């Protein structure tokens, strides 16, 4: 992957080049609702290590122009939604590892939490150089054997993170700004050796949801968030949307990584924290605006999420403003 044309074959055409060195390319997904940066290292011919940094719901879109690619994804933060050709959905969460082939490439992807940090390793099995194949042979590792034993022709292989997996990916991610190519090659061999020891017994039983189920769950979530000054009965909302409460809760957690109650509470408290920082509104008014009948209940919820009470939180902000610029006390929030 030495030129922009080859990069666009995999990642699509809506990208621009930010930086280019001998074995290192940084590209920007400019046409999205946020920011998306991919940092790509060429480890071997046909083998790329990609650091994914997105603050957007829009996901990168892989191209179908290359057929025989072995793809490895590891999620550090956020959630990765994948829609497959049969219009079923599944999700990759923090600490999850997915191994896939282009035969099972998702037709659409997104980041439901509007943030995603992860690592992707791409191996073009038709292009991979003799250098990596000789190394793998030396360690008795075969990409074809991994492909077959994990049944990648039929579906994506997902497993929850182990300490060994996490250790490998964390060491790579911590050095992403200026990574040693030879060090990254060693880590790749270590990772592939680990994959060679896996079997279908280690596989996580991935849950798939229909497009109709996902649409209903997202619609209910959006309705609750858009009217965050009100309190809703999930039992009533799910009946109105003709989806069982049990299915709704299970699907919601897959999409957003949390229970509906906990997710909404965290959303409201983070919104409250922003209001405490930026607006001259008393705490009781903030509580009412977020659906709490009194400041006491709101303060209790705020502390459970933020680790401090609203008044203590605001005091810390005021102390910071005063310390940062003691001559502009009028900026302090009341």
UniProtKB/TrEMBL annotation:
UniProt-recorded Gene Ontology molecular function terms: DNA-binding transcription factor activity; sequence-specific DNA binding
InterPro entries: Homeodomain-like_sf, HTH_AraC, HTH_AraC-typ_CS, PchR_regulatory_protein, Tscrpt_reg_AraC-type_HTH
Domain HTH araC/xylS-type: 218-316
Top-level division of the source organism's lineage: Bacteria
Alphabetized UniProt keyword annotations: DNA-binding, Transcription, Transcription regulation
Matches recorded under PANTHER family: REGULATORY PROTEIN PCHR
Full protein name: AraC family transcriptional regulator
């Amino acid at each position: 992957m030495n030129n922009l044309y080859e990069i666009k074959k995999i990642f699509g055409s809506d990208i621009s080049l930010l930086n280019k060195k001998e074995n290192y390319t940084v590209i920007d997904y400019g046409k999205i609702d946020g920011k998306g940066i991919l940092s790509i290292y060429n480890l071997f011919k046909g083998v790329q290590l990609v650091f994914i940094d997105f603050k957007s719901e829009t996901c990168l879109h892989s191209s179908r122009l290359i057929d025989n690619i072995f793809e490895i994804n590891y999620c550090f933060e956020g959630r990765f939604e994948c829609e497959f050709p049969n219009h079923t959905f599944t999700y990759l969460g923090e600490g999850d590892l997915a191994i896939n082939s282009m035969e099972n490439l998702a037709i659409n992807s997104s980041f439901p939490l509007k943030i995603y940090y992860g690592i992707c390793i791409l191996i073009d099995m038709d292009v991979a150089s003799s250098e990596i194949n000789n190394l793998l042979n030396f360690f008795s590792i075969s990409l074809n054997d991994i492909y077959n034993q994990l049944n990648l022709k039929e579906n994506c292989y997902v497993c929850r993170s182990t300490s060994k997996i996490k250790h490998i990916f964390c060491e790579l991610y911590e050095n992403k700004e200026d990574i040693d190519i030879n060090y990254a090659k060693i880590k790749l061999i270590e990772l592939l050796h680990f994959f060679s020891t896996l079997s279908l017994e280690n596989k996580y039983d991935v849950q798939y949801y229909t497009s109709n189920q996902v649409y209903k769950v997202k619609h209910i979530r959006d309705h609750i968030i858009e009217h965050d000054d009100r309190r809703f009965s999930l039992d009533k909302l799910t009946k109105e949307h003709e989806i069982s409460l049990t299915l709704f809760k299970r699907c919601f957690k897959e999409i957003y990584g949390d229970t509906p109650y906990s997710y909404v509470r965290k959303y409201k408290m983070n919104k409250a924290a922003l209001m405490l920082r930026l607006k001259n509104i008393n705490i009781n008014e903030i509580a009412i605006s977020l659906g709490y009948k009194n400041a006491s209940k709101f303060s209790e919820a705020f502390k459970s999420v933020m680790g401090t009470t609203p008044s203590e939180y605001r005091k810390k902000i005021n102390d910071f403003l005063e310390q940062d610029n003691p001559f502009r006390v009028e900026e302090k929030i009341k």
